[in-house]
Write a structure and sequence with these properties.
- This protein is mainly alpha-helical and 278 residues long.
- Helices cover 72% and strands 0% of the residues.
- The protein contains 13 helices and no strands.
- The chain starts with a helix and ends with a helix.
- 38% of the residues are buried.
């Protein structure tokens, strides 16, 4: 009994957070699983059509983009069926936008938990990003059905998709942590985030290929980190018929890393004040 108690005792002392923060993240991994599972359950609880929402949203958005950019604007597709060109970008975009929205409001939504007990607060927004991964996997299954329907067979590049999924996760986590911490102090960000997501959709190559961007503007366009993520997804899914602009991709990865560093540093810096401010 004493050994069991010692293994589960946590002594709160000055400087503990700084010394053991990443170790505490591992120590509280079960809380991370519980919160992530709770968020998944709440998302589909008392919904009329359940997980079908995760299929309908990207499907309807894809239909609109195919009609507007493929049929009306007649954007080039490099020989790729336009529905697959759009859906291969819709996957990372919806994962990114959903993760950003969920993570940014996650701390305020768990105010009661934060104000009562100690645990690394980073668990909450990270769990919200993981929750969006469920919708991503459901949408990926829909893409598989679409590829079978259009008889579009990917090649070996498909095995690199987990790497680009990890890049999409990191691209969402950095801004998500930053916005989550800012929303605790400035609740106005709840109204800013939907605007950022809507604006980001139109400046990202979701409905068209980034090849249509003039060559002298492509590096500037790649300052949007989602451009590199989307180009990577298309390269992996569309059997190389969609190309990666190497300088722009490297720049996008660098921007993802920069946002991740800024997000973690600001979150850690303001984390101690969450319980008082919230």
């Amino acid at each position: 009994m004493p050994k069991f108690r010692k293994a589960h005792e946590l002594l709160i002392e000055p400087g503990r957070t700084e010394k053991n923060y990443w170790g505490d993240l591992w120590r509280y991994r079960e809380l991370f699983y519980i919160l992530a599972w709770r968020d998944i359950s709440v998302r589909y609880k008392q919904t009329a059509i359940g997980v079908l929402w995760a299929l309908l949203r990207p499907f309807l958005a894809m239909v609109i983009f195919v009609v507007v950019f493929g049929r009306i604007a007649k954007m080039p597709s490099n020989g790729i069926p336009y529905p697959i060109l759009v859906f291969s970008a819709m996957l990372p975009w919806q994962f990114f936008s959903s993760s950003l929205s969920e993570a940014s409001t996650s701390l305020v939504g768990n105010a009661n938990l934060i104000s009562k007990i100690y645990f690394p607060r980073l668990i909450i927004p990270a769990g919200a990003v993981i929750t969006s991964l469920v919708d991503f996997l459901i949408s990926a299954a829909l893409l598989g059905v679409l590829m079978i329907w259009l008889r579009f067979v990917p090649d070996w590049r498909l095995i690199t998709l987990p790497l680009f999924t990890l890049l999409a996760f990191l691209a969402a986590l950095g801004p998500g942590l930053l916005l989550a911490a800012l929303t605790v102090k400035f609740r106005d960000f709840r109204y800013v985030i939907p605007f950022i997501v809507q604006f980001g959709l139109f400046i990202s190559p979701v409905g068209f290929s980034s090849d249509v961007i003039p060559e002298n503007w492509r590096l500037v366009y790649s300052l949007n980190p989602i451009v590199g993520v989307i180009d990577g997804f298309r390269w992996a899914i569309c059997r190389g018929e969609a190309h990666i602009y190497a300088p722009g991709f490297i720049l996008s990865v660098g921007i993802v890393g920069l946002f991740l560093l800024i997000g973690i540093r600001y979150f850690r810096k303001t984390e101690k004040t969450f319980a008082d401010v919230i």
